[in-house]
Write a structure and sequence with these properties.
The complex is a heterodimer of chains A (409) and B (105). Chain A has 409 residues and is an alpha/beta fold. Chain A has four domains: 140 residues, Rossmann fold, CATH 3.40.50; 66 residues, Helicase, Ruva Protein, domain 3 (Orthogonal Bundle), CATH 1.10.8.60; 105 residues; 61 residues, no CATH class. Helices cover 55% and strands 7% of the residues of chain A. Chain A has a five-stranded parallel β-sheet with strand order 2-3-4-1-5, with helices on both faces. In chain A, helix 5 links the parallel strand 3 and strand 4. The longest helix of chain A is centred in the last third of the chain and has 21 residues. With 105 residues, chain B is of the alpha/beta class. Chain B is 27% helix and 18% strand. Chain B is built from three helices and seven strands. In chain B, the strands form three sheets. In chain B, strands 6-5-7 form a three-stranded mixed β-sheet, with no helix packed on it. Chain B has a two-stranded parallel sheet with strand order 1-4. In chain B, strands 2-3 form a two-stranded antiparallel sheet. The N and C termini of chain B lie far apart (32 Å). The chains are: A alpha/beta (409), B alpha/beta (105).
Chain lengths: 409, 105
C-alpha cells in the first residue's frame, strides 16, 4: 500500500482531454461554454456519480481561464444563501474579466437534485431566477433529473447527459496510473477493479491505490476482497478495517467507503484505541488526532460537510500512528456512551413520564418540570411518601419509588 | 446492423416519423441525403425508432478508438454483455489497443 497522497487528487484532470470518456458530452459542454450567445443561459450536466461531471467543469474552467464559484450539497442552499453567494457573482462582472488571462467567473451549482427539504427551502426558485438574470455562465450538475422538483431547472437549461464510463476505458486509465506509479498489475486484477467500480472512475482509482503495494505484483487474488460499491459496510467491519489499516491512505479510503454514523464511529474509535496501541506515546498521539477529528466533527454540524475530508484525515492519521504494531484483537466494543444510554433507557423513560405528568398538571413544559419541579417533589415525598400530590400528579408506585431513590439526573 | 454515426442513410419515412427523428436528436443533410446525430440525450429512443424503420432490432453505431482513432463495432468487444452503454458514448478503446496494453497519451 502506498502512503503518499490520494491518487484521485493526484490524477485529477486539469485539461478537458484528461477527463475520461463521455466525449460527446464534453464536446457539447465546450461548445456551449465557448458560444457567447447561448440559447439557454445555463447548462445541466446529469448522470451517475463518478463519471466526470465536476471534473469536466473544473478542467474546462482551468483550460479556458474561468474562475469557478461553486456551491455544492455541503452548503446550505436556501433562497437567501443562494442569493447571497450567487446573486452578486452572476450580476456583477469581475475586474479580472478585462484581463487577457481570465474570462471571468463561472457559477457551478453541484448536486442540484439534492436541493430539497426544509433546509433548502426556496432554493430551486432562486436558482431559476439567477439563471434568467445571470451575466456569467451558470453550470449545474445532478445525478437524477427525473425528480419533479428540478423540472423548473430543466426548462431553463441545456441538458447534457453523462454515461457510466466503460470498462475498457477504466482499465486503460488504471494501466496508465500503474505505469506512472511503477506498479506491476495483472490484467485480470485491473479488470476486476474496473468491473467492481460499476463505471465510477473515482472508486476504481481508490481501489487501485488501496490494493497496490510497492515491489509486489497486484494479482486477481488481491482484488477478491473488494466489497461491492454500495457503502453498506457495517460499523464492526469499518472499525476492523480502520484499525488494521497499513497506512494513512488505506484508512482514509476505508472511511470514505463506509457509511456509518460518524458520531458513533468517533466514540467507538475513542473507546477502542487503548486496545489498539499498547505504547502510551503512540496512544497519546492517536488520541490527539481523534480529538482534532472531533473538533472538525463539531464544525461540520449538519451543514458544513465540505469539512468532512479533514475529519477523515485526522481519523486516518489516528489509525496510522504505528501501522507495524497492529495485532488483531477479537473484541471491538461498541461506544461506552451508547451502552450507557442503552442500560439507562428504562430509567430515562420513567423520568420522562414523571415530567410529562407534572407538566400536564402544572401547565409547564417537560424540561421546566424536570429542572424546576422534580427536586422539590422529591423533597416533599421524602417527608411523607403518601402525600396527596401523588394522587394529584397521578404518579404510579414505581414512579414514587424512582423519585425517592433518584440521586441526580 | 452497424451504422456510421457521422453519416447514415435511412429509407424514406413519413413526415411524422421524420419530425420525431429530428426531435429525438437527428440532423438531416439535404445535399447528401444523410442523417447524423446532433443530440445524444435521447439515444435509446432514437435507436428504437431507427430499428423500427430498418426492421432490425440490433442497430448500433460504430465506435471510435480513443487511442488509435480507428472505427470499430461493439460486437467484437469482450465486455459486450457487461456493457450498459453500448450506443453512447461513441468513443471507447478497441480490442487491439486493449490487448496490446496501450495507454492514453
Amino acid at each position: 500500500m502506498r502512503t503518499d497522497a490520494l491518487w484521485v487528487e493526484k490524477y485529477r484532470p486539469e485539461k478537458i482531454s484528461e477527463v475520461l470518456g463521455n466525449e460527446e458530452a464534453k464536446a457539447t459542454f465546450v461548445e456551449w461554454l465557448q458560444n457567447k450567445r447561448h440559447v439557454k443561459k445555463a447548462v445541466l450536466l446529469y448522470g451517475p456519480p463518478g463519471v466526470g461531471k465536476t471534473a469536466l467543469v473544473n478542467a474546462a474552467a482551468n483550460e479556458f481561464g474561468y474562475k469557478v464559484i461553486e456551491m455544492n450539497a455541503s452548503d446550505t442552499r436556501t433562497e437567501k444563501a443562494i442569493n447571497k453567494v450567487a446573486g452578486p457573482a452572476t450580476f456583477f462582472v469581475g475586474l479580472d474579466r478585462f484581463s487577457t488571462a481570465s474570462k471571468g467567473s463561472l457559477l457551478f451549482l453541484d448536486e442540484v437534485d439534492g436541493v430539497a427539504g426544509r433546509e433548502d427551502r426556496g432554493g430551486i426558485g432562486a436558482i431559476v431566477k439567477i439563471v434568467e438574470e445571470s451575466r456569467i455562465p451558470v453550470t449545474m450538475a445532478a445525478n437524477d433529473t427525473d425528480l419533479e422538483k428540478i423540472r423548473p431547472l430543466k426548462k431553463v437549461s441545456t441538458l447534457i447527459r453523462f454515461q457510466q464510463v466503460r470498462l475498457p476505458l477504466i482499465i486503460t486509465m488504471l494501466r496508465r496510473i500503474c505505469a506512472m506509479e511503477h506498479i506491476d498489475a495483472e490484467y485480470d486484477a485491473l479488470e476486476r477493479i474496473a468491473e467492481n467500480s460499476k463505471g465510477d472512475v473515482r472508486s476504481a482509482i481508490n481501489d487501485l491505490q488501496s490494493l497496490s503495494e510497492p515491489n509486489r505484483v497486484l494479482t486477481l487474488q488481491d482484488t477478491l476482497a473488494l466489497s461491492s460499491r454500495n457503502k453498506d459496510i457495517s460499523m464492526d467491519e469499518t472499525l476492523r478495517g480502520f484499525f488494521s489499516a497499513k497506512s494513512f491512505a488505506e484508512a482514509a479510503t476505508m472511511l470514505s467507503r463506509s457509511n456509518v454514523d460518524y458520531d458513533d464511529f468517533l466514540l467507538s474509535v475513542s473507546d477502542n484505541l487503548p486496545r489498539r496501541y499498547d505504547n502510551p506515546e503512540e496512544l497519546a498521539k492517536a488520541y490527539d488526532f481523534v480529538s482534532r477529528a472531533d473538533v472538525f466533527r463539531g464544525r461540520i454540524g449538519t451543514e458544513h460537510w465540505h469539512l468532512l475530508r479533514y475529519f477523515f484525515n485526522y481519523m486516518a492519521r489516528a489509525a496510522a500512528v504505528s501501522p507495524e504494531s497492529y495485532r488483531p484483537f477479537d473484541f471491538i466494543s461498541p461506544p461506552i456512551r451508547i451502552i450507557t444510554l442503552f442500560w439507562t433507557k428504562g430509567k430515562r423513560t420513567m423520568l420522562e413520564n414523571i415530567c410529562a405528568k407534572i407538566g400536564l398538571q402544572c401547565h409547564v413544559s417537560r424540561v421546566t418540570a424536570k429542572n424546576d419541579f422534580v427536586l422539590f417533589i422529591k423533597a416533599i415525598l421524602e417527608k411523607k411518601k403518601s402525600n396527596s400530590i401523588v394522587t394529584w400528579f397521578k404518579l404510579e408506585n414505581e414512579e414514587v419509588e424512582y423519585l425517592l431513590k433518584m440521586n441526580k439526573f | 446492423m452497424v451504422l456510421n454515426k457521422k453519416a447514415f442513410k435511412l429509407p424514406r419515412v413519413e413526415r411524422d416519423i421524420f419530425i420525431r427523428l429530428v426531435r429525438l436528436g437527428l440532423e438531416y443533410d439535404r445535399e447528401q441525403g444523410c442523417f447524423s446525430i446532433k443530440s445524444y440525450n435521447n439515444i435509446e429512443k432514437l435507436v428504437d425508432v431507427i430499428s423500427n424503420i430498418l426492421g432490425d432490432k440490433r442497430v448500433s453505431f460504430l465506435q471510435s478508438c480513443l487511442i488509435c482513432g480507428s472505427d470499430f463495432p461493439c460486437q467484437g468487444c469482450r465486455y459486450f454483455d457487461l456493457c450498459d452503454t453500448r450506443n453512447l458514448p461513441f468513443h471507447c478503446v478497441c480490442s487491439q489497443c486493449l490487448t496490446e496494453g496501450k495507454v492514453f497519451e
